[in-house]
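Page 42, continued from yesterday. The earlier attempt failed because a stray header line got pasted into the input along with the sequence. Redoing it now with the clean sequence only.
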Amino acid sequence: MHAMQYALTLPADYDMAVIRGRVARVGHLLDDWEGLGYKAYLMRERGVHGSPVNQYAPFYLWNTVEGMNTFLWGGAFQGLSNDFGRPSVRQWTGLSYEEGGAADSPARSAVRLRQPVPEGGELAKVMADAVGETERLAGADGVVFAAAAVDTARWELVRFSLWADEAPRTEGDVFEVLHVSAPGRKLLPRGRQW
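This time it went through. Structure tokens are written below.
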């Protein structure tokens, strides 16, 4: 499993209806994308759920590198780049994925928590703790799924969860979910990824 996200931070007075309209027009295009486990079309609005910014920030869980590369180099990503400029694309190696009790419910919100991997800590323990946190989070009421991944270039953990609720009960940046494409959801490996 590979996690990926890019974020377009928009002006404070940006009309976020433009983003909603864009997702309504093109969101379905990845509903059957080969190699994609999940894509959550995410948005934050300044002042909502404590967000300091207006932002469009889709989050992906990929089953295959080929699917991710086809998205990035095969033309789909170019449309976004043409319209907004080419954003930096963050990538993380998957550590854990678990479906929650609301796995078959529509997702309404998402939470992303990024944290540094502690210096001097035993990596096996840090990663095992991240797996345990994924399991704990997936067991919470209203969770569609929970995942954890690591960026070893920055030594950063990312914990990501989708929720059927509008007001999730965990810490991190809260996003509104505009659409979900999940063609390979059933193919995402569950549990620890090593």
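Notes: The domain at 2-192 is CATH 3.30.70.100 (Alpha-Beta Plaits).
Reminder to self: strip header lines before submitting.
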